[in-house]
Amino acid sequence: MIVSSLKFRNFPVDDTDIFPWTLPIVKNFEELQFEKPISFFVGENGCGKSTFLEAIAAYTEVPLAGSFRLEEDASLDAANRLGKYFYMRYEQKTRHGFFIRAEDFIGFSRNIKNQIQALDDEIIEVKENFSGGDINLTIGAIEGEKQEFIKRYSKDLEAMSHGEGFMKFFTSRITGRGLYLIDEPEAALSPSRQLSLLSIILEKVKKTGSQFIIATHSPIIMSVPDSEVFLFDDGLITKVDYKETDHFKITKGILDNPGSIMSEL
Q: What is the pTM of this model?
């Protein structure tokens, strides 16, 4: 384990009528104990699970896999405020890892494309203005850097389908032992690719000892073995079996008897 618990260092006495302090889940929060290397935050939209995940990212200062630094992203202002009051117990502190939301992938892929283009532009500039020395040596160094980008991420992540690019991102970026925070990855993944993601996560947990905290609505993703599920509901966070979640019950009910479920709508 990298982190084993989360609680408030203290609670603000002022401005508690400002989001996220207005969330019941924040007002009632006491402590989370992480006992598994893979943890899921589940609950209805607006319950606060993504806000908590974002605040953990702000507190731990893991990189944001998008086009902004985490503290520069205006959409994360509330999470940054909340994260300042968190305290996490580390079993082994690390800055390795990342935080990603499905929408951040678009910014990430564009950044990679722009960096590759910048290296192409640099090669052109060297060819046009180089004087003296070995031009092949200079161009070779730049070309080598470019090829490393292409080898790791492909030449154009945007040209792939969203799911293909998302999976390429995970296989290339989940490397050493780290803390990985992922918000609703199912938004970009088909059911089969969700299973592929779980395979990658299980492999990294086994080989590197990494830890994953994932906010999700997917009963496929939250079913992974040797994991724990934190349910955000009625202003409280409780640990449950994934089969106790509405996500599982509703999905199973529809698959078992779609006609009966639809007649009740």
A: 0.77
